[in-house]
Amino acid sequence: MSTDVSGIPEAAETIRYRHADDVWSAAVDLLDQTLLPETLSRLICETPGQLHDAIRRLVVRGAPAIGIAAAYGVTLTRVDSRADAAAVRSRYLETIDYLATSRPTAVNLFWALDRMKAVVQSVEDAELEMLPNRLADEAIRIHEDDRAMCRSIGINGAPLLQGCQNVLTHCNAGGLATSTLGTALAPIYHLHENGTTLHVYADETRPLLQGARLTAWELSQAGIPVTVCTDSMAGGLMKAGNVDAVIVGADRIAANGDAANKIGTYPLAILAHYHHIPFYVAAPTNTFDMALASGDLIPIEQRDPAEVTQPGGPSGRTTVPASAKVTNPAFDVTPAELITAIITERGVIQTPNQANVAEVLNA
After folding, report:
1. Is 239 assigned to a binding site?
2. pTM of the shown model
């Protein structure tokens, strides 16, 4: 079975798009990440509603990947060919607004949908019959752009990890979360491809175990040694001198460099700071929300308490008494002062702050 450099089998490609000559036969083909690592199964989405549900249920997850999936989701809109131009535009814009409600924190989702909205608004009435194909072309460009960004993040981040032996990561910011190499894992894949293989500690990442289920799986596929640890073990590993660097992804980064990532990232940054271990965030520039002055303004998704009370899913054992309350925020925010550097496709932002972020993003 063929693989890309990340080691993910072709059969497990995160997102595929089916766009034949007949635009109405379009479909989005997603790897169902809720079933990994036990089962490789794909979900075909043929309507925006199905795509919305897939994003909400984490069939597809990871900030870049949900942006790509949502862009393709716009192309699944069905429009009455007899409708006038205003009605056609309105139908597409309704789909865009609807898909934007699937998840609130990852800004890549809104960035991708804004690109699709610009296409809807730019096509002249006389060329409106071309709109479905123009939208498909734009979604494919978004997908291709992400591949290039992941590759560049890997190249830019590799020197920061060059002298490391053991790196710790949290959640999944690899090929499963993007189009190909990932963000946080991209420098690790780049080094591996060029003859330097690091050992990775993958935080289990409760409550949905994306580190244990997804990161450990894809690193194993690539032949990169990986050890799964529970989230609470990270401090002990650092104290013992077993962690040389921490690298994570991000779902939204404010103008001052504060970064929202999977819940549990903030305490990792505090631990790394205490133990004088570099803490890196890797993300494409479309993850930055320059309209937000600080991370205090980033909306944090609150998810179903059942993810905590029944960690094995509906058929799993209940681990929390019914009388207890449960909180389940999906993300937390790491202040910029705890981040050693942010790795982007345009370059590395050392000592992130508003000025340093703006310098790289405006370069």
Report:
1. no
2. 0.94
> Is position 129 within any domain?
yes
At 249-292, the pLDDT tens digits run 999 999 999 999 999 999 999 999 999 999 999 999 999 999 99
Q: Which residue has the tokens 């997908």?
A: 143
What residues are annotated to the active site? 251
Q: Greatest CA span in the chain, whole angstroms?
A: 69
131 and 184 both lie in a single domain: no
Whole domain around residue 69: which residue ranges? Answer: 10-146
On whether 210 is known to bind a ligand per the annotation, the reply is yes
Q: 79 is written with which tokens? A: 């429009």
**Distance from C-alpha of 141 to C-alpha of 156, rounded to nearest angstrom:** 22
Known binding residue 261? Answer is yes
The Cα-based distances of 331 to 81, 108, 172, 181 in angstroms read 42, 15, 13, 22
Residues 169 and 142 in one domain: no
Residue 22: exposed, middle, or buried by beta-carbon count in 10 A (0-12, 13-18, 19+)? exposed
